[in-house]
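lol so apparently i was supposed to do this last week
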Amino acid sequence: MSDKRRAVVVDTTAFIAGFDAYNTYDEVYSIPEIERELMRGSMAKTRLEMAIKSGRLKIREPTSKAIREAESASKEMGDFQSLSEADIKIIALAIQLRDEGYEPRIITDDFSIQNVAKKLSLEYASITTHGIKYHLKWILYCPACRKTYPPDYKFENCENCGTKLKRKPLSKALIRGSKGQNKKEFGKLKLSEGGDERGP
Ligand SMILES: [Zn+2]
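anyway here it is w/ zinc ion bound
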């Protein structure tokens, strides 16, 4: 076995998908933005706060050198547009830890981060292959024009504008919300089929 110190860099999607900092022997790192991105009062936020408080998860700001490296790799891969500043920092932190001699792995469910990690020969894993299974609903969406797609959509790019699609988990509240909307739309449809449309 390698005697390098092992670390994982965890992003928001991993925490939402159920990442638990106590389920790994590796050192756990993330970036300051993760605290802002997780919804207050959510399970994910509680898990994050406990992990930070106990020192199990360490928050680090990557150096500007590492950020530049992450940016240029993502531009080369055509993923730059799909990545938020926080996403770039996740990649940058992994670069930085590797430079410091760690064997790091990024835990993320974000396609674009995985893509750029591959380009940089950084290890990555999604939460489902990390040994934790959660029943999560996902949607694919276009970060440029905001069009959404079903989770099993077969193409990588937006049919409207060609931007590479991103994947995000729907919170339980959101799932409930969208069901309600569907019902309303269905109701409307029925109404018009029944010929009950009223003029202005
Ligand atoms: Zn689009």
